[in-house]
Amino acid sequence: MVLTGESLTWQAVTATAVPLLYAGIVSSGVAYALQIIGQEGVPPTEASMLLSMEMVFGALSGALFLGEAMTARELTGAAIMFAGVLAAQVPGRILWYRRPSR
Fold first, then answer.
1. What CA–CA distance (Å, rounded) separates 93 from 99?
2. 11 in the same domain as 35
3. Quick check: 56 and 82 in contact, CB under 8 A?
4. For every one of its 102 residues, what pLDDT tens digit does the chain have, with 9 covering 90 and above?
5. What is the reported pTM?
6. Domain count, the chain
7. Whether 100 and 73 share a structural domain
8. In the structure, how many helices (H) and strands (E) does the chain have?
9. 81 with 52: CB under 8 angstroms?
10. Which residues make Cβ contacts (< 8 Å) with residue 78, sequence separation at least 6?
């Protein structure tokens, strides 16, 4: 409102107070608290791998719950990120299996 030259009124403040408080408390407070609780029993390397997927989960959630459309480039990027995290988590002996020499 300030950028558009309009004056700030108490009606505007009270109309946006509840959504702003909800966004601040739920997005920041509750989400990070749940993240910390979830990370307690996970090794740091696995936690960092999962957290690097945050953008993919956000984009897919937007597509599933909000009906947002993902482009082919976005889907390809999400698949590459998922494959990279999956490849990093799979033990090397399974991923690069070689037959024993005879």
1. 11
2. yes
3. yes
4. 557 777 778 888 888 888 888 888 888 888 888 888 988 888 888 888 888 888 899 999 999 999 999 999 999 999 999 998 888 887 766 656 666 666
5. 0.58
6. 2
7. yes
8. 6, 0
9. yes
10. 56, 59, 60, 70
- Assign 3-class secondary structure to 24-83: HHHHHHHHHHHHHHHHCCCCHHHHHHHHCCHHHHHHHHHHHHCCCCCCHHHHHHHHHHHH
Cα dist. 11→1, 17, 18, 22, 35 in Å?
Answer: 13, 10, 12, 18, 36
Dist. CA 81–CA 91, nearest whole Å: 18
Residues 48 and 37 in one domain: no
- In the DSSP assignment, the letter for residue 66 is S
C-alpha 22/C-alpha 26 separation (Å) is 6
Note whether 16 and 54 are same-domain residues. Answer: no
Pair of tokens at residue 62: 């937007």
**Domain ranges, residue 24:** 1-41
Residue type, 76: T
